[in-house]
Amino acid sequence: MNDRQEQPPKANILVVDDTPDNLRLLSAMLTQLGYEVRRVINGQTALKTAQAAPPDLILLDIMMPDMNGYEVCQRLKASPITREIPVIFISALDEVLDKVKAFAVGGVDYITKPFSEEEVFARVENSLTIRRLQKQLTEQNMRLQQEICDRQKAELALYLSQFYLDKFKDAIYFVDSNARLIYVNEAATQHLGYTREQLLTMTVPDLDPNFSLDIWRSHWQNCKHKGCSTVETLHQAKDGQLIKVEVTINYIEFNGEGYHCATVQKIPNF
What we know:
The chain is α/β, with parallel strands linked by helices. It contains 10 helices and 10 strands.
C-alpha cells in the first residue's frame, strides 16, 4: 500500500455530469490527486446526494437534460444544508458558457472541457482553500461571539454579586494567601473609614494589630485545614480607633487559588 492510499482523502467531491466518459475521467483525475469522489449523472440525483451527505465541493456540468447546471446550483444555494458548498461549473469549449450567469446563481469557478489535470487540480484546490478559510473565519467569529457573551454574563454576575454584598450590614472581605485584600463591600468602608480603593491596597496586618504576617500564615493554614473559623480581634480604623470585632472566616478555592471570605461584625459596648 502506497503513502497516498494510507492518507485520508483531502476532501469529498461530488461530480455531476450526464456523460459517463467525463465522469470516469474526472473521477480518475481527482482520485489520483487524493480526493474522495462521488459521481452522479443528473441534477435530481445530485440534489438528493448533496442533501443526504453534503460534499466539500461540487463539480457541476451545465448542459444536462431535464435540469441544467444553473438550476441545480440555484436549488443548492436555496437549501440551508447545501448553500455553503462551493460549486465549480463544467462546460465544453464549443458550448456557450455564460460566466456572468454562472457566478450570479452561486458558482465560484468553472472548468472547460477537454480537461487538463493541472487546471482541474488548481481550480479545485483554490476553491477548497477559500472554503476552508471561510469556515475557519466563521468558527473564529462564533468563538469570539461566545467569548463576548460569556464575558458579558460574567460581568453581569460580578455586578449583581457586588450589588448584593454591598447591601449587607456586616463588613465582608476577600483575602488572598498573601494577606492582601482583594474585595471589600460597602459596609467595610463604613466600619473603618477608608475608601474601597484604599482598602484594596492594604493587607490584613495593616488593619489588625493582632495579626503579623507570621501569625497570619499560621492562621491561614489552620483555616485551610478546618474550612472555617471564628475569632475575636481588633481592627484599626483610619482615624486610629480600635474596634473590637468578631470575624467569621470561610476558606474557599477558585481556579486553584485559596481565599478567605471573612464576615466581620462589630462587638457592641467596647
